[in-house]
Specification:
This protein is mostly helical. It has helices at residues 8-30, 33-50, 60-78, 85-88, 111-114, 123-131, 135-141, 146-157, 162-169, 173-187.
């Protein structure tokens, strides 16, 4: 069974409730608000093109996360390795270190993009939403290989099951659990 043809307005109504959380997800994967915006636009274009093939075997939200995750992974695979701020300088004990002159690419996630002040979410939910894009967490996960990063974010931040994560990444539950254990050993 395939989805009926949708107009642009119908597609927008389907996707809009998920846009902010998908943007935050792309940011967690990529560490850059600007790259997240690019990835989200590409993911939404992929979703628009693939909507006819959406069979409803998973929720629309899960399907959109699958597209956004794989779009982010594709972007990570295409770009050169990025250096994090901590990688620019010598170990912290050296006083005569030269100043960092190159641009630092990792950036904080803007509070207004989080929607934490929308008044609808409980204080605990707002705290968790903000914590999941904290700069320290984002910097830490950027050290992980892309697949481990995706697994950690999907499982520990978004609460996807191992099965859902495996379906999103096209891998087994065992591979997901293994990648999660390796990611946690680095980040936690």
């Amino acid at each position: 069974m395939t989805a009926p043809a949708h107009t642009e307005d119908e597609f927008r109504r389907l996707v809009e409730p998920h846009r902010a959380e998908l943007h935050a997800h792309c940011y967690r994967m990529l560490g850059s608000v600007h790259d997240a915006e690019d990835a989200l636009q590409d993911a939404l274009l992929r979703a628009w093109r693939g909507l006819q093939g959406f069979e409803g075997r998973s929720s629309l939200r899960s399907w959109l996360y699958r597209i956004a995750t794989n779009t982010s992974l594709d972007l990570i695979a295409r770009r050169p390795k990025r250096v994090l701020p901590a990688d620019y300088g010598p170990p912290s004990g050296e006083r005569d270190a030269p100043p960092v002159v190159e641009g630092i690419w990792i950036e904080a996630y803007p509070d207004e993009r989080l929607g934490v002040e929308d008044g609808y979410a409980a204080p605990e939910a707002r705290y968790e939403r903000r914590e999941s894009v904290e700069l320290a967490f984002i910097a830490a996960v950027q050290h992980l290989p892309a697949t481990q990063r995706a697994v950690l974010i999907l499982r520990d931040v978004l609460g996807f099951s191992a099965r859902e994560t495996g379906e999103t990444l096209g891998t087994s539950v065992e591979a997901v659990n293994s990648a999660l254990a390796r990611a946690r050993s680095v980040v936690c």
